[in-house]
């Protein structure tokens, strides 16, 4: 893992340095462009319509660990107005092995892959977006860390995203996302207080 981290870049501080992770080299901090909620760090690909979000969310104690990623996927689907039949689908949920992660404080970690048909900025045109979620459960802090990778697959020509798709060699990959998950590290537990 250290070789991959070295090739891809240094860990980037998140939440004022309380967390860090290796992000793709072309990640632009969206908070420099617009207001972002305090519980989120949002990064956009400077050349495409892809984004990665690290978010602190409330630990859902009534949701079993193996169902928690799906719970958050459905919550995102509700926010994206992608609840009607055929607009969202989960294709896999797998447990991440703790020995492969730097975030040793988590009780369990999961990766979900799915798709949602969503529109941007309340447009009528819907785009098919592959949604990859990483979920780190931290019951001792009453927090889940939710990491999402929005990867547009099919862009409606009428969408404002149609002009945002850059050259394929500049696209982020699932491997970039997995590296973020593997290198996420907690430096200051005071973040959760």
Features:
193 residues; alpha+beta; Protein Transport Mog1p, Chain A; seven-stranded antiparallel β-sheet; three-stranded antiparallel β-sheet; 3 helices; 10 strands; globular; disordered N terminus
Topology:
Blueprint: H1 2-8, E1 12-14, E2 19-21, E3 27-29, E4 40-45, E5 51-58, H2 65-79, E6 88-95, E7 108-118, E8 127-138, E9 143-154, H3 174-183, E10 185-186
Antiparallel strand pairs: 1-2, 2-10, 3-4, 4-5, 5-9, 6-7, 7-8, 8-9
What does this structure look like?
- The protein is of the alpha+beta class and 193 residues long.
- The protein has one domain: 3-Layer(aba) Sandwich (Protein Transport Mog1p, Chain A).
- It is built from three helices and ten strands.
- The chain has helices at residues 2-8, 65-79, 174-183, and strands at residues 12-14, 19-21, 27-29, 40-45, 51-58, 88-95, 108-118, 127-138, 143-154, 185-186.
- A seven-stranded antiparallel sheet has the order 3-4-5-9-8-7-6, with helices on both faces. The protein has a three-stranded antiparallel sheet with strand order 1-2-10.
- The longest helix is centred in the middle third of the chain and has 15 residues, at 65-79.
- The radius of gyration is 16 Å and the shape is globular.
- The model is unreliable at 1-7 (pLDDT under 50).
Hey, roughly how much beta strand do the residues contain?
35-45%
Tally of individual domains? 1
H-E string? HEEEEEHEEEEHE
The CATH class name reads Alpha Beta
Output the number of helix runs: 3
Adjacency order of strands in the biggest sheet:
3-4-5-9-8-7-6
GO biological process, one term: protein import into nucleus
GO molecular function, one term: small GTPase binding
InterPro entries: Mog1, Mog1/PsbP_a/b/a-sand
Organism: Salarias fasciatus
């Amino acid at each position: 893992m250290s070789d991959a981290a070295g090739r891809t870049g240094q860990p980037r501080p998140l939440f004022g340095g309380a967390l860090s992770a290796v992000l793709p080299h072309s990640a632009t901090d969206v908070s420099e462009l617009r207001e972002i909620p305090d519980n989120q760090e949002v990064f956009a690909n400077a050349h495409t319509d892809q984004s990665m979000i690290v978010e602190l969310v409330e630990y859902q104690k009534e949701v079993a660990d193996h169902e928690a990623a799906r719970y958050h996927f459905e919550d995102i689907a509700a926010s994206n107005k992608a609840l009607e039949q055929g607009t969202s689908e989960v294709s896999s949920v797998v447990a991440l092995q703790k020995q492969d992660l730097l975030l040793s404080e988590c009780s369990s970690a999961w990766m979900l892959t799915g798709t949602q048909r969503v529109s941007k900025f309340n447009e009528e045109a819907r785009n098919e977006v592959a949604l990859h979620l990483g979920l780190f459960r931290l019951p001792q802090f009453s927090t889940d860390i939710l990491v999402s990778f929005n990867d547009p697959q099919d862009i409606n020509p009428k969408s404002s995203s149609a002009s945002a798709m850059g050259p394929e060699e500049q696209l982020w990959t699932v491997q970039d996302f997995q590296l973020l998950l593997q290198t996420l590290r907690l430096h200051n537990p005071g973040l959760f207080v």
